[in-house]
Design a protein that fits this description.
It is a single chain. By secondary structure, the chain is of the alpha+beta class. It has one helix and five strands; from the N terminus they run βαββββ. The longest helix is centred in the middle third of the chain and has 11 residues. The radius of gyration is 24 Å and the shape is elongated. This is PASTA domain-containing protein. It comes from Paenarthrobacter ureafaciens.
Length: about 90
């Protein structure tokens, strides 16, 4: 009597769903906006990292006290996981 080998188990690779890169367009007409309002708009678009850079070198603490003077890459589409740099003044 000969021993028969057990059939090899069938292994199927696990399918891992990777989320598609989410992008949004950086608003272009932001000069003169209140920094707090712009932050809310950027968050609504899905941007997760917003950096506020003071034109005078001061630390930006309370966004509602600052006015936007510019934004990097206005009107361009960018991944929402990348930083958006907003320039502000008091």
């Amino acid at each position: 009597m000969t021993a028969s080998a057990a059939p090899a188990p069938v292994v199927t690779p696990a399918v891992v769903a990777t989320p598609a890169a989410t992008t949004a367009v950086i608003p272009a007409n932001v000069v003169g906006m209140n920094a707090q309002a712009l932050e809310e708009e950027l968050e609504a678009l899905g941007f997760k990292k917003v950096i506020f850079n003071s034109d005078t070198g001061k630390t930006v603490l309370l966004l509602s006290n600052w006015t936007v003077t510019g934004i990097d890459n206005p009107g361009t589409e960018q991944a929402t996981t990348k930083s958006v740099v907003v320039h502000v003044t008091k």
